[in-house]
Fold each of these.
Amino acid sequence: MYYIDVILPIPLKQKFTYKVNKDEAAFLRQGMRVAVPFGKSKVYTAIVYQVHQTAPSGYETKEIDQILDKYPIVTQSQIKHWQWIAAYYMCTLGEVIRAALPSAFLLESETIISLSKNDVSEDTLSDEEFLVFEALQHQSSIHINDVRSVLDRKNVVAVLEKLLQKNIIHVQEEVFEQYKPKLKRYVKIASKYASEENLRDLLDQLSKRAHKQREVLMNLFMLTAQSNKPISVKQLTKKSDTSSAVIKSLVEKEILEEYFIKKDRVEYSGDEASDIKTLNEAQQVAFSEIKESFKTKDVTLLHGVTSSGKTEIYVRLISEILKTGKQVLYMLPEIALTTQLIARLQHYFGSKVSVYHSKYSVNERVEVWNNVLHSKPKAQIIIGARSSMFLPFQNLGLILVDEEHEPSFKQYNPAPRYHARDAAVVLASIHNAKTLMGSATPSLESYFNASQGKYGLVTLKTRYGNVLMPEIELVDIKEKSRKKRMKGHFSDRLLEEMQEVLELGEQIILFQNRRGFSPIVECTTCGTSPQCPNCDVSLTYHQYKNELRCHYCGYHMAMQLSCMACGSETLDTKGFGTEQIETELKALFPKHSIARMDQDTTRGKNAYAKLIAKLENEEIDILVGTQMLAKGLDFRNISLVGVMNADNLLNFPDFRAHERSFQLLQQVSGRAGRTSKRGKVLIQTYNPYHQILQQVSTNDYSGMYDQQLEERYQYKYPPYYRTIKITCKDRNLQKMQKAAKWFGQALENKLGEQVLGPEPPPVGRIRNMYISNILIKIPKKQSLEHTKKYINRVEQSFNAIKEFSSVRLLIDVDNY
């Protein structure tokens, strides 16, 4: 007997064994997909892990349903990498597979219903049963979703159960392929009209009664004569200035033959690749140092100030790697950044660049996956967000992690809760590739690793073209408010600078890290503010839709005219978001073009690209935005950056708040004055003497690093200690508290003072689930592996307690 072990894309720890015959066993290899029955009636797509002849003990093996691939779509090195992610981040291999594979590869079964007998007495059927029976009279089989629409209800299982008991229907599970290749329709003249004589007769006939059809044929000859390429239906209709109905009738008369050619959705149709720019002296030194560092270190950190030309160094490195025939992965934290970078890289490397991120359609992602798997020329350089790390690289030579400090590289929900920067280092080591991390404000962990000699360190301290770093000025809005020098949320100093910049025809960026119009709506009579019914937060007012919205669960309601508690109509808004700034700007600068860049305005696939293109073409004078603006975007004509309120960044209950504030403010400042003229940055704050703001104003990264490192050492946080956060969630507050207390005490039995909590987070209820966190701090000298094994044992014991069966446990390793 032959067996295969498979990995299912479900959160169960073990692999499952299925029976196969001798021929299937000879054909199957690791990384192929098979459809397998699981549970009572579900069919899942599973990945083959290994083929063997050892029968499993403890359960009867089932046979597989079908083999879905002719060759493996997952490589051995991918499975090795995924196993590391599952082990390190304490999740299951199935969860990693669900995150890694495009959803089109993870087919799941659909229920198909068909009639087993036609001669049924209609009197024995209820109204709903009769509707299903009648629907099946017109079609041989119907989908379960069709039954739902016929009965106009979601739950149809009870009705189908009764029909099954009466032996009137069959139910079967079928697996549907989600990926559909893009087919382009072409036409050619039918072979029977290939001879000149037949063709002349045909044209004579058409000239008498079908002028349009004759014209289409004449245009087809003309296009064929001009080039040997196939003629598409679209091309022919455009040339003939006719409708597709005319072509359809020619196909029906068998005068034209239609055929289809498979087309890639991801195609580059730009100019030929351009020559790479010559590096300036500082860049050349940095480039040489990186190459030198790679001789002894696998990972190097490039600490280059904003606008120092890091991308040009990356481009030079990429071109050297491509000459060796290897692939390059270029990872970015945010989809918004890919828009600008794709254009820059395609300028240098043409069609060798492919893009992979979640805003792409499922079909586009499948095509990029297959191109990488087969090492196609169009997939030599992959640009993508964190998910691009899961692609089936065959010959990876270099991974670039740009803006490595960004929190967006961390996946929080669902599992696997991995950090793409750290997982990329492991991926590179599996492929014997090199990793280059770049940032103007490196994360403390990376800089600590570099200063300890674990990573190489290269610094680039001058901006491209020797432009000076922007001048940063702190504006005390507490003082300005006292002296009545504020206009809305703008100080007189900021308005003065803005006026000057606009008169010179230059552009401005304004940063406010809150979207919406106002975070709080409050009744001035009784002090009540509308709260989200599902979360412990107040609702944010969005003026453009005139609604109150929760930014945690998406709950929304119309803006209230009167207080829900006391009925008074004295509602006031507190705080401000990007929307309110935009409204104020329109009143202050009515003649200028103003735009907003936040989650609300960039929902579509090409929304980022359109906004960025408008700013580059100088169609926008003032852009207001959230932290999306801070992420490495390169604009040529921005001479002023305004930070509306720096304090809401600093006063945040998180040990990283000060490091993140420094990074964010420094990055936002870096958008100013990137070409020839020195830029200016104005930071509005109630506390201009705050140490972090002083460090930002003097670009003092090393001062911030030393001070934060000292604090981390004092309070036992990374990089000196590792952290694992365990979250308990339940709809019942008492049950959740009891479960969290049990788990915390079980951990304390062995780990003692290293366990903190359980404690509720700042927002203690989200989506009607009460939350409590336990934090484990693990010193570097303690074995991380043994600690994780102990946590797993405690988790197993916890899962065995019936009382806590509804409590959800989430484990987050390195929760930064």
Amino acid sequence: MSVLRLAPVSLLALMVAAPAVAQTDVKTEVRTEVKTQADDGAVPEIVVTMQKREQKLLNVPAAVTGFNASFMNDVGITDFAELSLFVPGFEVQDQSPNNPGFVMRGITSDSGAATGEARVSVFQDGVSISRSRGAYVELFDLDRVEVAKGPQSTLFGRGALIGAVNVIQAKAKPVLDARAAVSVGDYDYRMVDAMVNVPLTETLAVRLSGRTKHRDGYTENLLGGENFNGLGTDALRFTASWHPTDTLHFDLITNYQKDSTPGTGFKSGTFNPTNPQTGAVIGDLSPTSGAALANPSGFKNRDLGLERTVTGTTLLGEWRLSGDYRLSSITAYRRFSASEVFDADGMSLPVLAVAEDARGKQWSQELRLNYDAGGAVSWFAGLGYFKEEAETRVPMQIDERVAGLFLTNNLPRPTPLSLPMIAAAAPTAFGPLAPYINSAHRESSANYGETESIDAYADVTWRVTPKLELSAGVRYTQDDKVSGYSASVETPSVLAAASSLTPVITANVQAQVTQLVTQYVMANGTMPPQSQINAWTAAVTPVVVQAVVAGMPPVGIFKQPTPGNGNRIDQSFSDDGVTFRLVGRYAFSETVNAYASVARGRQPKVLSGDSGATPLAAPKFTYADAETVDSAEIGLKTRLMGGRLSWDTAVYGYKYENFQTQVSTSTGGLITVSAGEADAYGLETQAYYRVTPGADLFLTYAYSHARFGNGLYEGNRFRLNPDHSLSLGGRFKFATQNTRFWFTPTYTWQSEVVFSDDNDLPQHQPAVPNLRPVADTKPDETQKAYGLLNLRLGFAPLNAPWSVEIFADNVTDEAYIKDAGNTGDNLGIATFIAGEPRIVGVTLRFNY
């Protein structure tokens, strides 16, 4: 059934019983998800809806971290990367808004392939936005964020193999309200947040909020132009809330985000930055210094960088059928379109320029019925429909003159030749083929994914005694999927075919010259002089070369074209599976809870396509079996010292089967394969302590031991996963007779991380003919342990509608990298992306 049919059904189900609009005091209808107890000195207490009902975090039998808008504003959280610093067991790598990596308890979800599936799901008000190239959205004007760790497939469904992040956006409220904040800082940083909330009637209110955030790049462009690793985002949200009766309400949410950022600074760790025209060295190999990157003229007709648009519309509905039953509906449509151009080799010469053009659209509908009469048993059950169409296209441009020298290991290291020198050497290097060597050879590949999914789920909680509670849940998911692949070559690559062309050309030239010699002998009775033979050879060779080249198939360097030089080839398949959870919670008192759980998470099987070995051959499709994880977890949750101390701890262990990872193919592509078994165990703790009503301290710590078992990467560490991570900070607020002040210091630290599942080990990076000319034996694709100190200091006159805050991020100007390896690693020349340096600025806030 299509979503276009389901959506009216869901709306009708909610609206059929709606009586005439009642005249009620709508201010009593304002739903406040964050409860505070400031009057008695207790720490803030967050109410979350992870288990599809409102619960205090204390009573949720799972490892959940919740932040309200107040905390996020105080510590300066504006995006997922900043959020992850304060969530134990959660890491986010932000190469660019188009290429994030979400890591939960050691498991990374970052594949850009249209055929891939997420392991860590991101949601906006219960709607999955997990497709990697559209998942990284700005965090502004929120009620709260909930981060649930462990297998959450039963509760959240699609993609929540090992965790879920649910962003709860602020809804329109029946009060007149407005606020704005303006920030400026180093690197021409400027950010503006604004919101206005207007009640139109007693039952209808609207809210408009937005953010614009821009910053110049912090990695110098040594060739001139925009610096790399900058920001450029504009986002807008409109919400409307309608409460026609006491028992029925709707929230309409529309989001728009536009990203336009300068290029990502993929800095080579192998080749010095040089002036490509003179060969002069203009930089060094440090990953945190300037880079000499450029987009070759004509490729994609634009500069390096990202252009991305993400839009989405969600309709939330809830009908309280009685005091015991509640029917909820979530209807959503979402789409994204992104194009990112990057210098994949990380050097000044145009060896390889790559773009990624990704787009996707999805429709989803969920209906859920909750029952809770306040007795021993409560439950919820639901049905969901999801449909998605996605495509990721990867065009490439290669300068065959430079690539020919590189792929044969004749490009000097660490200082390459200049372009004029390479051009002058081409006739000698390529002989008679030199005129056909293309300085802008282009080829492209694309993968396609289509999914239509239906799932059914149910979860029941039995309050065995006032202290003991048992919960069990199950979800069944049925997927019908299509994986597609195509590749095309704009003009045949003589470089790629050189090894096969040379014997053919030589044989044809020799045959024609021999024929001319024979004719001369028959006519004159003597052999022609050598000078004549040389002249015939020189005259015949270009003609033969031209004829042979003209008859070439559309051969590529990295990708061989599919039939028809670009036809899309599809394969259909189905997948279904069951996930479950069993949870027990015991309340030792009203402020101390313990829980234990076992659960299964599942990631559907994946079918990846790649080019065949020869031009115009059918693509090769590789299956990766469904990945499953079985988990066990025990935890303790407390609120002690009269509510002044909130402390949670969880210990967990996982067992993975058919762990899916991406590996490079002989054609330079990435496919998803099963790496065998894997194990993980760890500990997470988080504490929040109110020393006095104006002084709070908070601390998080996570230990995560995640390793591959048998299979491809036996014994290796999981990528992007530190064994240890820590955050600590304070919120200090005090006032004088006329002024209030606040000070918020935070410090975050993590131990060493590796950036690939192969752990940069030489045995996984051997030399590969025509791809990686030299084995990569340099162990440099890691980031040693480091910490970041951030400070925020603010003041405002008492009862004034404005405030000023000074902020400093990375106060000690710690040098670190956020990624290493990347596309260049497939060629044996890893590239590196520097982390943010110290940035100091000021924020001015206004409140209505």
Amino acid sequence: MSTLVNFKPISVRRFALLSVCLAPLLIAGQAFAQVNATASATDDADAPQLETVVVTAQKRSENLQDTPISVSVLGAKALESRRVVSLLDLGDGAIPSLKVTPFFSRPGALVINIRGVGVMSDSNQPARDQGVGVYVDSVYMGRPQGLNSALYEVESIEVLKGPQGTLFGRNTEGGAVSIITKKPSGIGRATATVGVGNFGQYKTELHMDLPKTGDFSVKIDAIAAARDGLIENPLVTASDFGELEKRGARVAILWEPTANFSADYAYDNSYDASTTLYQQLIAGGSARLAASVQLQKTRAKTAIAGVPQQPSVGKTWGHRLGLDWQISDKLRLKSITAYRDLYQDQFDNGSAPSTMSLTQASGVFTGQPFSRISTAVFNQDQFSQELQLIGETDRLKYVAGATYFVENVDDNAQAFFTNQFTDATGLANIVLPLDYSKIVLDRASRVKSTSSGVFVQGTYTPAILDDKLHLTVGGRWSHDKKVGELFIVNGAPPSVNGVVGPRKLNASWDRIDPMINVSYDLSDDAMLYAKYSTGFRSGGANSRSLDYSPFKPEEVTMYEVGAKIEFLDRRARLNLAAYSGTYADMQIDFSARYRQLDPVTGALLVTTRTTQEATNAPGKGDLKGFEADFLIRATENLTVSASYAYNRVEIPDTLNPFPQADGRLITVPIPIHQTHTPENSGSISIDYQRPWLGATFIAHFDVNSNDGMYLSLVDVAYDPVTRAVTVPAPKGEGGTIANGRLALADIKLSNSASLTVSLWSRNLFNEEHLYNKSLNLSNGTTGFFNEPRTYGVDFKIKM
């Protein structure tokens, strides 16, 4: 058992850096305040203003412009305009600091990073966590599996950037994504949507908000969406690559027996099936390629070999009960209780091209297997409880609470070849008989994780400076514990140093995460803030390893300054943030092939499988970046927004402590790349609407761009003595994706019903780029292309 207690004071150097950053923001804020004052004196009082955006980032409803942290929000209209069905649809860059990608070729599990922080390696394991917390109606989603399920009727998605360790706790070192669904209103209404598109797409949605009956209001949501494969599988009896099918239902009940008390209950059940993405072979390596191999340097329409393929299926369901007691005008008590269950299987067979090579001296392909499929089954259940006490006095706003979370997770995995060449050149092949019952498990593990914490945060406005200065101080104590075991390796209990039996994990960690925030109102429409905060990602163990050794939590400390400004009589909004910080004890995976040393005894361990070990990097990495969000309502009909993010992560060189295939130890640290993080990202959107022919014409267009990212932590080859890189890791290509939607809304069908017809397209100009690139010296360069252009038409009826 290990313990980590961490509370770090703000250094003089960091405050100096904040002062340097704050100076230009202060000047800009004063200038905008002056411009705003001048404009307000001359503008028409009836000029269109921007809508007020309400967020719950600090556990209470507040105006976005009064909340002194960096938050980006996508409301219901924006999500509809971008045709967002699941979180993965935000991967094109609608919020530049947020990066959402599938776990390698598996859309059933998502990798989510904010400001370059969140996941560096493989979080698709029971004893490992992500560094960005995802919440649905304040309930934490414990696993990356299940995050790509279809979204129900969403009120807004808030992306909180930077560590959120005080109010949100563990696994929010990069930030948090808060999804807020629409609650029962008690006003009778119904919305039905039917849509079709290319690649056999269809989508149906039904949202029913029933009239209030007595003290009860009920809301029912149902959704189903599907798409055929994007790349054809030549094996006609198997699924194509990139198929999707999502469906789910949710029932929410709101009970309001008195004016100051309410209880809301919700049950949801979802199904998410998808086939693996297709990993194309872009260039060959040193190995001889089969005669049937054709390099595919542009986005393929058909795979080069027919392989067994079936959907990976995820099933999630859960209950949520919220209690809200308004004790007095200035004191509120909330309780959020939830139980959730998750099942996810995985059938990853998208990498056939990279296995169709031969390195034997004979150069004969007869009998050589290829198309290695990776299968896995993942089960999880979780229970969470949170209490919040939210109150205020004349000069103090505060929130205090306690949280408890427990989850049980188990998984297993196996990998085997599904095809075999039948001639010497590798031109003809057969599909091998599949009998899953006779295939031994490659590995299996289970873990129970528990986490508890208490938190408090208060904002004090002293009676000086005309009540323009606000000081916020908060902190959270957290206790994390993981108890688990790796109990199968190569179909049998692990054998280490002659000891046969499960490799055990029993570790716990204690932490304190503080937060200090100082904000100042330059005017009613301009505010500056400076913030210090910390967050952490829980420790754990790597289930792909041989010895299942624990690694420590990793942590982020961040210093941020920002400005929130509205001007031109609140027709324009500019929010700026600059940050600098450190990234400590980063959890980094290294390949450890066939032989390694026991970390306790130093004895040589031997295994027949390729292993992967995790270690905490020494020293501290550096985080720095800048974000800008601009929005203007240029006319009554036209709104334009633009966002930009610069996110840079520098990781210290790290020693691979594990022996390689020949037993050799690498003796010098090597460079590490930050993954899933474009350095520069930006997004521009244009929204236009006006009355037309008795209805409303709506047009939306957005463009999202980034300069590419790494998916590999380490370079392909380097000199182990001089550390000189001989073959760098390939960086994924950046790209620019445009999406568009045209709609004619509010077409009267009757006194109580109206119709909206919309034409939409994602990746409107069919731009293609290799967002994911891998390089193997023997097999060559492979990668995944972004999705091709999709388009369709939706019909929505409101009643």
